[in-house]
Design brief:
It is a single chain. Helix content is 19%, strand content 37%. About 4% of the residues have low confidence. It is built from five helices and twelve strands. The strands form three sheets. It has a seven-stranded antiparallel sheet with strand order 3-2-6-9-10-5-4. A three-stranded antiparallel sheet has the order 1-11-12, with no helix packed on it. Helix 1 packs antiparallel against helix 2. The radius of gyration is 20 Å and the shape is globular. It folds into two domains: 34 residues, no CATH class; 140 residues, Roll (Pnp Oxidase, Chain A), CATH 2.30.110. The structure holds flavin mononucleotide. The site of flavin mononucleotide (FMN) has 16 residues, from strand 3 and strand 5. Flavin mononucleotide (FMN) binds next to strand 3 and strand 5.
């Protein structure tokens, strides 16, 4: 389905006329794309599912579900993910010096939902331990990457965190959990 949002006449008015009265409108044109359409468009990209953990300045555990994870560089090994400003853990992650990315298996839907639920003690009843890098590491995930934060960029209503990988723990026998179209999926097999 092609969603053709015809903003072109408005965009032209905002950009062609450099009038002071148009200043607020220039900001307004950025929001003319229907947020539901943007959400649906971004959800049209299939991803894995991770839980990112860290500790805040008081030593309390932080954790949130994130599908924005991606690998960046092999040498040095670097990864990224993005944290939304609406997340309760946002300030803690924005300031963290290290984080651990846990790639979830298809048996961990409940864990994914737990770490996407604001206002609860996410670690309660979860099997986890403090790692050699002083990070909360969750048991039985398909992959865990412990990272030191090397960069943190503002990007709209998110911050992009870039980390250098310090330690890798792979569990090759776990099938990945996938996320697509606001729903969880399992791997279908090779084509
Ligand atoms: C599968 C899945 C992937 C998610 N990916 C991200 C992400 O990459 N970045 C992010 O900031 N929030 C992500 N979230 C949302 C957060 O985990 C969390 O639900 C949200 O920050 C809670 O705050 P809110 O409900 O007040 O928005 C994801 C949630 C789910 C279920």
């Amino acid at each position: 389905m092609l969603h053709n949002v015809d903003n072109t006449h408005l965009l032209r008015i905002f950009t062609d006329f450099d009038l002071p009265c148009c200043e607020p409108l220039k900001d307004a044109h950025m929001t003319l794309l229907d947020p539901e359409l943007v959400r649906a468009a971004f959800g049209h990209f299939a991803t894995g599912v991770t839980i990112v953990t860290s500790t805040d300045a008081n030593g309390a555990q932080l954790g949130m579900t994130a599908s924005s994870f991606n690998s960046v560089s092999l040498d040095p090994p670097m990864v990224l993910w993005s944290a939304g400003a609406q997340a309760p853990e946002f300030e803690g992650f924005a300031a963290c010096t290290k984080f651990a990315v846990h790639v979830l298996s298809d048996a961990q839907v409940a864990l994914s939902n737990r770490f996407a639920t604001p206002g609860i003690d996410k670690f309660e009843g979860v099997q986890w331990d403090t790692s050699e890098h002083q990070l909360p590491v969750i048991a039985d995930c398909s992959l865990c990457l412990q990272c030191e934060t090397v960069d943190c960029h503002d990007a709209g209503d998110h911050k992009i965190l870039i980390g250098r990988v310090l330690a890798v723990d792979i569990n090759p026998n776990k099938a990945p959990l996938l996320y697509y179209g606001s729903a969880y999926h399992q791997l279908g097999g090779k084509i």
